[in-house]
Amino acid sequence: MKDSPRSLRIPFEHTSMIVTRLSLQGTVSFTVKFEDGRTPISIIRKKDFAGYYWVSDLHSSTKLVDKVGRRIMEYTKLLYR
User: Fold this and answer.
1) Alpha carbon distance 40, 52 (integer Å)
2) Which of 5, 10, 15, 29 could form a disulfide with 22 if both were Cys (CB 3.0 to 4.6 A apart)?
3) Which domain of life is it from (predicted)?
4) Tens digits of per-residue pLDDT, 24-69?
């Protein structure tokens, strides 16, 4: 799988994911492609009165979306500190 120049390859569970930041005004959002063949997802970080959370399309499990979002944030914090 070829990476975009704006993409990151991030280890995830027993595979890797190719993560590309989307340019949507005022949001933190990513497209995620899994190297193990899982269906790609797009995720958006949102905030409400209780804090931040992740959402995706209707076909993705909430648990997976949350794990992917947290892994992206964890990895990018390590990368840019």
Assistant:
1) 22
2) 29
3) Bacteria
4) 777 889 999 999 999 999 999 988 999 889 999 777 888 999 999 9
